Amino acid sequence: MTSIRLHNVSYRYPLSAVDAVRELSYEFQQGTVYALIGANGSGKTSICNLIRGFIPSFYKGSVQGSVEVDGRAVTDYDDAELTQIIGYCFQNPFTQMSGVKDNVREEIAYALENLGYPREEIFRRVDAMIDMLSLSDLAGSDPFELSGGQRQRVAIAAVLVTDPQVVILDEPTSQLDPRSTQDVFDIIRQLKEQGKTVIVVEHKVDLIAQYCDQVLLMEEGRLVLSGAVHEVLSDPAVLAHRGQLPQVARYYLERNRLLGRHDRVPVTVDEALAWYAPKEGNNGLS
Ligand SMILES: Nc1ncnc2c1ncn2[C@@H]1O[C@H](COP(=O)(O)OP(=O)(O)OP(=O)(O)O)[C@@H](O)[C@H]1O
After folding, report:
1. Of the residues 18, 40, 90, 222, which should be mutated to test ligand 1's pocket, given the most ligand atoms within 8 Å of the CB?
2. InterPro entries annotated for this entry (predicted)?
């Protein structure tokens, strides 16, 4: 069980005049899938960096408040220790590649090699990742000769291979086609089934509604709304904070407004069908 607790955290990049994260307090629970949403520049990546300790180990600047992993300040961990607890998939998969490996297979093995895992265990885990991320056709390819989407999948495999309890995915589907995007969310579901904590920065609210448990909405460095996915993604206040709502929620909110009703607002198509699909005596529209 890994707990992550941020208490009254503010952070400012070295040359910046304003805080990128402001007075954030939040506790992430093991086994839950969290979506971090909000407009560009609202502080999502900075929060991920604070949790993983890249702020302040890599990005300097001023940090206030505390970030704790399992009750211990994140700054007290050494990097190898944190790598095994928190897997971090960067927003840009091009920066994730080691640059020292000739093929995808070796790239995925890289972290395990550095951590000193036995050869057989490395092979076993790498094979499992190749299978999970459907990378067998690319296993022998040069990581730098892949498309953005292929590289994104390799980056995810290279992170999951250490079997971290917490997985941070910063916009993992930004370069993926709809099919591969769906695959990544299916992997997120598998990670949840394995009891892992997943923190995903993502703009695709329709998929968040389907796959995530909790949503945190950021605006200008502040956490402005948080709660269960259904609660947040059916709340019109999200729009006022420059966030987005699933299409189906927008439709039912507008329907309520036009008809002067207060019906429950579904956030997924499945919910809409379950609640409002044509039944005897109800065509779903009245
Ligand atoms: N390395 C940096 N140096 C200085 N300022 C930075 C740096 N990285 C981010 N910022 C600033 O910090 C603020 C928060 O940025 P952050 O990347 O955390 O937001 P974000 O919500 O992840 O944005 P996006 O959706 O565009 O990835 C922004 O104002 C951004 O300009």
Report:
1. 40
2. AAA+_ATPase, ABC_transporter-like_ATP-bd, ABC_transporter-like_CS, ABC_transpr_CbiO/EcfA_su, ECF_ABC_transporter_ATP-bd, P-loop_NTPase
